[in-house]
Amino acid sequence: MNRLLSQKFRFYSFVCIALLLFVHGYNLQETYLTPFSLVTERLTFTTFIEYFLANGALRFRIPMLFIISGYIFALQDNRSYKERIRRRFHSLIIPFLIWSAFGLLVTYAWQQHPLTARAVYDSQLDQMGDNRPYSEMDWVDILIRWLVAPVSFQLWFIRSLFFYNLLYPFFKWALTKFPKIWFTIALVGWFSMFNFLFLEAQGIFFFTLGIWIQKTNFPIIKKPKWLSAFLCWLFFIGVSVIKTFMAFELEADNPETTYILVTLHMITVFAGILAVWYGADPVVKWFMRRRWFLWSITFSFIIYALHVPLIQYTTRLSFIYFHHLKLYRLGTYILVPALLLLFCIAVGALFRRLFPKAYRVATGGRGF
């Protein structure tokens, strides 16, 4: 792999994961944002900034991670499919089980004290809509929350990624035989927000796009001469701003609202990928020459696995203590993710140093 391309993959993989904290750290009254979510509270500087970042400008991250994942998996065709799936089971499913259980334990521990239990309840994280203490649930409820609907909801990515890896032979065949038909179907599926079990159309579209880019040797290393990085950034930010304003102004009972917001979401994602990938090469080169940054990159998976549900719980806990301060919501949105990012890196460094074998298993062999 080209050295610059390798550097960009490593840089953006870390950046996309680090930005997750600001995507998941929002404190709007709407506790779960979808691409077509509206904001029911009034428009303020704080609510605008939070929606603009969490559900607008930073939405390119997961698609970019899927592109990178698809590209790298397709690059390994010299290895047997069976061997690759075995390795992916150890690097994806085993960490999923470990960190999903960890999220349950963290939640249970926070539920044991009245103050922290209130923070857990206010977060409303339970994917089943049942925010009772775990001590009041039976083992079937806990099992479902471990395997199917984890409180560490960000883990859906590695679980889905494993199933995309399983389907790789089919994806490769479809992309080889019918690429235009495949991407048309995948794009329509994404627009319709199609999901079935652990398969979701957006992830499939971008994972297969990564495969296609690798198999066709599509030039992605450097910016095409005809592409203006400035115009890409301008368009990307502009559409994100428009989508944010519309989320405050559109009516929920209007059937066109969902289609408008989903369309703007898709445009924002495409524009964001182009702007970020082709418009920041000097930034990538500068950071990839810094030893402290290269060291931090090794803890990407720990940041990804550890930050939820902690970021939601610490956000709500900070509300309890600092709600009397001016601009406490905006301050919380900025400080809690930043501090938790440093905390995750510190925990990762300590974990790797004291228990290297356990660290290797928990991260799927990453970070060494």
Account of the protein in words:
The chain has 17 helices and two strands. The model has no long low-confidence stretch (mean pLDDT 94). The protein has 368 residues and is mainly α. It starts with a helix and ends in a 6-residue tail after the last helix. The chain is globular. Helix 1 packs parallel to helix 15, helix 4 packs antiparallel against helix 7 and helix 9 runs antiparallel to helix 10. A hairpin with a 2-residue loop joins strand 1 and strand 2. Strands 1-2 form a two-stranded antiparallel ribbon.
Strand content: under 5%
- The strands making up the biggest β-sheet line up spatially as 1-2
| Average pLDDT metric | 94
Structural class: mainly alpha
- How many beta strands in the DSSP annotation? 2
The rounded Rg comes to 21 Å
What is the number of helices?
A: 17
- Our measurement of the CA-to-CA distance between the termini, rounded to an integer number of angstroms, reads 20 Å
List unreliable stretches of 5+ residues: none
Per-chain topology:
Layout lengths: L2 H22 L20 H10 L6 H14 L6 H30 L3 H10 L15 H9 L8 H11 L1 H10 L1 H13 L3 E2 L2 E2 H15 L13 H21 L6 H23 L2 H7 L3 H7 L2 H23 L5 H27 L1 H7 L6
Antiparallel strand pairs: 1-2
